[in-house]
Amino acid sequence: MRIGELAALAGVTTRAVRHYHQLGLLPEPRRRANGYRVYGLRDAVELARIRRLSELGLSLEEVRDVLADDYGRELREVLGELDADLARQEADLRRRRQRLAALMAQRDLHPDDPVSPEMAALFTRIPAQAQGLLAKERQWLAMLDTAASPQVKDEIVAMLGPMADDPAFVQRVADVYAAMDEVSDPDDPRVARVARELLDLFPAGVLPGDGQEMLDSPFGAAFLADLTPGQAAIVRHAFQLLGERDTR
């Protein structure tokens, strides 16, 4: 058989056959005097084996190891690992479909809603707004849910969860954020008052240190830049008051 006939018999392409030759998966027959390779039935058997194993999901490196083992011990081990990997993929697919079903069941769906189940549960207890500071807070939390480490995400949910379970506290947050939305000028006389109201939302010990290190970090700088000048002034003043509060 010529290479095209071999490939057609095994149901693969001639390019695949040449690739298997390069990888050492399929022995390359000697060329005859006319320069053509001639393949036999044994080559077709080996090529069919490569195809079957590949269709099971084995990598070509794994196929090579399996074919080198005449007694099938390597094949049993590789198939066991493949089965375990497929089981993990199936479990992951089930979880993802359950999450998709929960999202599609929502009446109003926002681009920030596809977050982890823990953060999604938190979102259901936080008022949703199309604009303003509450809307930005939702965006920030969605970003942290995606980018932060599992430990940081757990800490965020652990801190905000009990607060979100208190309807009176949630309303206080909404009121303070609404007041912050009204302040655009850093010289606005309301800055000091709203800063105190903002700080009162956080019990002692909840915020790390005096908060200045966090404000000076790249994330803190980006956070302040995302606020209006008036809101940024309120946050800075609140952290200043935090340092004074913790030194008493």
From TrEMBL:
InterPro entries: DNA-bd_dom_put_sf, MerR-type_HTH_dom, MerR_fam. PANTHER family: HTH MERR-TYPE DOMAIN-CONTAINING PROTEIN (PTHR30204:SF93), REDOX-CYCLING DRUG-SENSING TRANSCRIPTIONAL ACTIVATOR SOXR (PTHR30204). This is DNA-binding transcriptional MerR regulator. The keyword Lipid metabolism does not apply. PROSITE patterns: HTH_MERR_2. It comes from the Bacteria. Keywords: DNA-binding. SMART domains: HTH_MERR. The keyword Lipid biosynthesis does not apply. Residues 1-69 form the HTH merR-type domain. GO terms for molecular function: DNA binding; DNA-binding transcription factor activity. It comes from Nonomuraea soli.
